[in-house]
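not sure who needs this but someone in the group chat was asking about FAD synthase from Siminovitchia thermophila so here u go. i didnt clean anything up, its just raw.
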Amino acid sequence: MKTIFIEGAFIGNREEHEPCVMVLGFFDGVHLGHRSLIDTAKDIAEKKGIELAVMTFFPHPSNILRVQNKITSYLTPLPDKQRLLKNMGVEKLYIVTFTEQFAELSPGDFIKKYVAGLHSKHVVAGFDFTYGYRGKGNMERMKLDGKGLFDVTTVPKKAFNGEKISSSKIRKLLDEGKVEDVHHFLGNHYSAHGMLERQSFDQNSGKTVAHIVFQHYYLPQKGLYIVEVTAQERIYQSISLLHVHHSCVLVLEGNIHIPAPVTIKWLAKVKALSPLQYKSIDQITKNPYYPLKA
Ligand SMILES: Cc1cc2nc3c(=O)[nH]c(=O)nc-3n(C[C@H](O)[C@H](O)[C@H](O)COP(=O)(O)O)c2cc1C
Ligand SMILES: Nc1ncnc2c1ncn2[C@@H]1O[C@H](COP(=O)(O)OP(=O)(O)OP(=O)(O)O)[C@@H](O)[C@H]1O
């Protein structure tokens, strides 16, 4: 997959680009709703014999627009989004820098300069996709804006238990510590890639304690979780304590040296620990020889 960053004023010249099916959206998480768009577009691209392309934006528009809830950390930071889209068969990924000037483009100009300008022959987006100044463009308008230039497919709402599958819903579940429910929306348990900062073996309890730091990730609510840790293709089961904003503490049975980097997959929240289990975790994290900075 080729990734192309687009910054500043841009006017694409159709003739300079391969014809493509273009999928539009932010795609944080690349969840089951997003996947239905990509799969739909992939079928069209195969039938029409043209490239499968995705256009996304960075940073999240909320950082630029005057809205209350700014999204500054992501379910899938850019490298994860790139990997997931590539694995789904996307051939070209356009990442448009979302700036104030870009936000002010009229719906028609966005379609002309970016979507048609990059030689889209067919556009795929979801039922609630909006574009252009004040988000005034919608899928009905897209058909008019793209008339004679490209076909439009609008993907209907994908829902679970009557609720729209969305990045916001997944963030809400993480905020509430309901990591067990995330897979209904994401298609998998929530996971993040982190760096091992330090680890030590606690002689008293016979457990290894490791400190993992994450960058740019949206993390579950503070608490104790059962997690799966993968490092250099080995899998470890662990209890994890979400510690400060961007880190977690792993507690593993035995004297284990886990190599960095690591992937943590949140399986379940620990609701009831036996007093013995709780005491040992408490002892470990309060151990004055374990240098945790809260
Ligand atoms: C050219 C362009 C201009 C935009 N301007 C605004 C804007 O002024 N106000 C706004 O709330 N959203 C604006 N948006 C954001 C869209 O409403 C929408 O959030 C974005 O296209 C991502 O779509 P998605 O959230 O459905 O993935 C703009 C989007 C584009 C592509
Ligand atoms: N559940 C869904 N069913 C169909 N299309 C969807 C669904 N969720 C998102 N899409 C489409 O996927 C693209 C990317 O959407 P977006 O990144 O805004 O996802 P979202 O989950 O709705 O995000 P948020 O919750 O932050 O609004 C858009 O074209 C959108 O219409």
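also The longest helix spans residues 32-48. if thats useful
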